[in-house]
Amino acid sequence: xxxSRCEVCGREFSAWALIACPICAKVVCRKCGYFxxxxxxxxxxxxxxxxxGDDEDELDREEI
Length: 64
Ligand SMILES: [Zn+2]
Ligand SMILES: [Zn+2]
Prior knowledge:
Bound molecules: zinc ion
Strand order of the largest sheet: 1-2
Strand content: 25-35%
Largest sheet: 2 strands, antiparallel
Low-confidence stretches: none
Structural class: alpha+beta
Helix content: 10-25%
Radius of gyration: 13 Å
């Protein structure tokens, strides 16, 4: 398939114009994407997750 849909704004774009979030794999266009740390994320939340990493999380994670 050559076209995909931005999962934020719902518009269709060519595959090359879309970015998969490295955190949650949501596909977003460049306008909806949040660019930080040299990558494009689907949202600022994912950029923050990327920055903090998955191992240590003092916010709201409930570990067993
Ligand atoms: Zn979009
Ligand atoms: Zn994301």
